[in-house]
Specification:
twelve-stranded antiparallel beta sheet; alpha+beta; Porin; 12 strands
Length: 160
Amino acid sequence: MTVYTVSKSGGAHRLTDAGGNQVAALRAHWSMRGGEIETAEGRFPIWTDRGYQSVTVGPREAPLVVLDGRGARIAGLSAPARWELRGDRRRYDAVLSAGGSRIEVHQSARMGADVRAEVTGAWPRPELVVLAACFGVMSVRRGHNLRALAVVGAISHGPR
């Protein structure tokens, strides 16, 4: 098993291996609706849908990674993939699986929490796929926080 961590530093989310070496970076919009992943291969756009449930990496006409509850697709992977994402007020978790390979992503709901990814098996473009899965968890968390802020704002500023 390989363990990666995503932590925010200097305006970017940095993917580091167990030795603390940076292997990729994500520069995301404050809303976590989109951004750009940078790996040794190059830079790739990343975005999520309005409900923060689907993640796409790469050009729109030929995406490299699509993580969606209805079916995940990863370029270069022959086995069908499955993406499961869930979260509550305490933690957010996701699992990307294909054949015998698996990526488990975990993030606490507390402010500033790092993201942990545990990877087993072989994946094409592993840093890109892992950071896409981490972005999926981070974006769902941000979506939940933004909806909670909207509700609090509506309730606290209503007519008197």
